[in-house]
Amino acid sequence: MPRVKTARMRGHFGGDGWPDGQWHLAEVHAFERLGRHILFDVSSMNCYETTPVVHAVVDAVRSKADGSAQLAGGRFPRHQIKQAVRQLQDRGILLPGAQSVPRARPKLAKRLGIRHLELMVTHACNMRCRYCYGSDDRDGWQEATHLYGARQAGMTWETARKGIDFLFQASGAQKDLSVIFFGGEPLVEFDLIVQVVAYVRDKERETGKQVGFSVSTNGIGLSQKVVDFLLAENISCQISIDGPPAMHDRNRVLATGQGSYDRVMLGVQRLIDKRPGRVPARVTVTAGQVDLPAVADHLMSLGFGSIHIEPVIGTAGALSLGNADLQQFETQTEHLAHYLVRRIKDGRIFNFSNLVRHVRQIRVVDQRLAHFCGAARTYVALAQDGAFYPCHRFVGMAEYRMGDLEQGFDDTLQRRILDLTVDDRPECRECWARYLCGGGCWKHSVDVHGDLARSDLESSCRLIRHQIECAMAINGALKVSDKELLSEAYERTAEPYRISEQGRQS
Ligand code: SF4
Ligand code: SF4
Question: What is the whole-number distance in angstroms between the Cα of residue 50 and the centre of ligand 2?
Answer without folding.
Answer: 35
